[in-house]
Amino acid sequence: VQLQExxxxxxxxxxxxxxxxxxxxxxxxxxxxxxxxIRQPPGKGLEWIGAIAYSGSTYYSPSLKNRTSISRANxxxxxxxxxxxxxxxxxxxxxxxxxxxxxxxxxxxxxxxWGQGTQVTVSS
Length: 124
Hints:
Elements: E1 2-6, E2 10-11, E3 17-24, E4 34-40, E5 47-53, E6 58-60, E7 68-73, E8 78-83, E9 92-99, E10 113-114, E11 118-122
Parallel strand pairs: 2-11
Antiparallel strand pairs: 1-3, 3-8, 4-5, 4-9, 5-6, 7-8, 9-10, 9-11
C-alpha cells in the first residue's frame, strides 16, 4: 500500500488548506481500517489531526475540531483534509497514515503505512 499526499505548499493566513491523500494498493473502505492525518511542525513532535474510518465516520483532535474536516472519495480511493482559518503555527509537514485502530496516536510505529508528507507553509 502506498500513500501520496498533495497540496498547495504555501497558504495565506486565514485561508483554507486543502490536502489530498491518494491511496494505491489497498482500499480506503477496507473493514476496520482507519486513515489519519498527522502533522509535524518544524522542531516539534507529531500531532494527530484526525481520521476517517472504513465506515466513513470521522474523528478529530479536540484542539483542531472546530476548523478541520476530513472526507473521502471512494471511487478515487482518496482521503481529503480541509483546515480553515490557517495561522502561521499551522506550518508543518502534513502526513496521511493508516492503521487498524482509532485514537490520537502519534507513535509512528503504530501505523502500518505513511505517505512521504507534504510541506505546508502559512505565510503572507
